[in-house]
Amino acid sequence: MSVVNTLLWETVAVVVIAPLAGVALAVHGFRALRRAAILFALMGGVSIFSAIVIARVPWPTAMAAHLTLGAAAIALAVLGGWCGSTFRDPLDAAASSVTVALIATCGLFFLGPTGADLPTPVVNAALLVNPIVAVASAANIDLLRFEFLYQISPIAHRRFDYPAWHLAVACFALVSLMAGAGVARARRLEGLR
User: Fold this and answer.
1) Which value, to the nearest 10 degrees, does the dihedral of the CA atoms of residues 83, 85, 91, 93 take?
2) Which residue, among 33, 125, 34, 43, has the nearest Cα to 80 in the 3D structure?
3) What is the distance between the alpha carbons of residues 102 and 26, in angstroms, rounded to a whole number?
4) What gap in Å lies between CA 149 and CA 22, rounded to an integer?
């Protein structure tokens, strides 16, 4: 159970820290990107190593979960970079990027009774873009049956499908590409001024 907790807490941290890191990189320059990427790769390597060696998680499961986590982190960081390149005030950029990340992560769970009435394809799409659900699904964790979520969210009481990890990675890659295009456009427009 400690591996499950560690992975979920890592994902929660990524949901908040990655957009802020993207804003910081956009505001303070992208020269620090290499150092941030090296630090991220080292942390991911340590996490994968400990999951496989210490917790004895099968390596395909550990790799799928961490690839999904990495794709989500990159997507959220690039989203933060887009906000940081677009907004004049860094605090507005930080607030916007974290708000988008939190809505993607928590919005479906806190819809209350409205969530029970959503069509299954809408629920499945919302679960696909949810970093915590996507990482938990890749790690074969039945997240929506945890007691806390089971009690507060009607989603756990209805029909839904957990996202396949490779579809979640593709979705996060698409978000990264779109946000990256937004960063490039904002930089180009800044150069024209």
Assistant:
1) -10
2) 33
3) 20
4) 29
pLDDT tier, 33 (very low <50, low <70, confident <90, very high otherwise): low
Q: Which residues contact 54 (CB under 8 A, 6 or more apart)?
A: none
| Tokens of residue 46, six digits | 């340590």
Tokens of 188: 């180009």
**Residue 173, token pair as written in the block:** 């890659």
| C-beta pairs of 2-9 under 8 Å, 24+ apart in sequence | 2/55, 3/51, 3/55, 3/57, 4/139, 4/141, 6/47, 7/47, 7/51, 7/65, 7/69, 7/135, 7/136, 7/139, 7/141, 8/132, 8/135, 8/136, 8/141, 8/143
Contacting residues for 19 by C-beta, under 8 A, at least 6 apart? 76, 77, 79, 80, 83, 94, 97, 98, 100, 101
Q: Which residues contact 144 (CB under 8 A, 6 or more apart)?
A: 133, 150, 153, 155, 156, 160
- Torsion, Cα 21 98 105 54, to 10 degrees, reads 30
Residues 6+ apart with CB under 8 A from 86: 93, 182, 186
Query: What is the per-residue pLDDT across 18-30, written as a single tens digit (0 to 9) for each?
Result: 999 899 888 877 6
pLDDT at 83 over 60: yes
